[in-house]
């Protein structure tokens, strides 16, 4: 009996410790509540355990008025629907959204707030699994580019690295999400579109290094991460330019580029990809072929020219086979704009040399 009591006491102690250290490990629940019904924030060990979950098939992006989640639903066969929890919650107190398609647009966002999303796949009753944890800051951020000293201006997904030679005085740099679109510009987005502005619209004197986080969920078939480009332009009315790529860190999904000016920047794929260097070195030119001239042996007819009276004249000789003893009559079509309608049409007539008959 004493042994049984010790066993039960040990079992209760283990359950208590497990509930205390890992209070949110039950994946069948989207959130946890205390006895009073107050939601417990997700600053727990559960969040720390799952923050590095693989997110290759899911991406998060922002527009001027929303945060967008996009994932490949076909990569999760057997799923009935998806659950998304957001922290902080919505205005009505809810933190849970259910979707059946592979995308979700969250328009209930507030400037200056960082949102964290947890995406679950639901395969059936009591079959729930976390597939991604994502976070995004919504709003603008302002930093300072120091003069004469290295500095960095960080934004969620974009880092500007300054060496201290870009400005002669300390300059405020603001980064926000651009309201512009790039679909009409034949750019397939792989990152957010960032708008960079500075105090007094100052432009850097030397190029700035930009570190852009990208995703490949929209990467077209046949493309690789080596086809990634960084596009920049002064404003929405300016044409896009290609920034100089420094390197691509595929393990961290970050592309490094050197940008000579501000203000809009986006990483993506060109809808009209450039030819690779290997393909460019292949000689695809056709060998030189002397094509036959279809006009060889044909007469050349010049355009009709008006005479001093303004009358157009044109003669078109008719080639006939040679006759006996080389005798070949010369016959031609003659056009005269002053002539009236005839057998061959208006202004046209048949011209031939006269033939004289000599009687003996």
Look up the CATH topology of the largest domain.
Answer: Chondroitinase Ac, Chain A, domain 3
- What helical percentage do the residues reach? under 10%
User: Which class best fits the helix and strand makeup?
Assistant: mainly beta
CATH architecture descriptor name of the largest domain: Sandwich
User: What is the tally of helical segments?
Assistant: 3
Q: Given the C-alpha coordinates, what overall shape results?
A: elongated
Q: Give the amount of beta strand, in percent.
A: 35-45%
What is the topology?
Blueprint: H1 2-21, H2 45-50, E1 58-62, E2 67-71, E3 81-87, E4 96-99, E5 103-106, E6 113-124, E7 127-138, E8 141-145, E9 151-155, E10 158-162, E11 171-177, E12 187-189, E13 194-198, E14 208-213, E15 229-233, E16 241-242, E17 244-249, E18 254-259, E19 264-270, H3 277-280, E20 305-306, E21 312-318, E22 331-336, E23 341-342, E24 345-346, E25 348-352
Antiparallel strand pairs: 1-2, 2-5, 3-4, 3-6, 6-7, 8-11, 9-10, 10-14, 11-13, 12-19, 13-19, 14-18, 15-16, 15-19, 17-18, 20-21, 21-22, 22-25, 23-24
Folded structure, characterized:
By secondary structure, the chain is mostly beta strands. The chain folds into three domains: 58-138, Sandwich (Immunoglobulin-like), CATH 2.60.40; 140-270, Chondroitinase Ac, Chain A, domain 3 (Sandwich); 305-352, no CATH class. It is 8% helix and 38% strand. It is built from three helices and 25 strands. The strands form six sheets. Strands 8, 11, 12, 13, 15, 16 and 19 form a seven-stranded antiparallel sheet that branches. The chain is elongated and about 140 Å long. The relative contact order is 0.08. Mean pLDDT is 77; it is low at 19-55.
